[in-house]
Amino acid sequence: MGITVELVGERSQEVEAEAGCYSDLLSPFDVSKHEVSIFVDGRPVPEDEQIDPSVDHVRVLRLIKGG
Which domains does the chain have, with CATH numbers? Predict the structure, then answer.
C-alpha cells in the first residue's frame, strides 16, 4: 500500500506502508514523531494509531520550537 506523505513546506514522497502506525510513515524524512503532527483529511491523528487502509495521503506538519 503506497501512501503519499507530504512534509508541509518541504517535500512529498510515496511511502510503502503495510499494517503499521502513522509514525512508521516518517522513516524517509529527517524528523522525529515528537517534533511533528500528522494529519489525515485535515484532522490530527495520534502517531501510534494504526494506519487506516483507505488513507492514500497524509500531511505532516513540523512543529516550530521557540527559544
Answer: 2-62 (3.10.20.30)
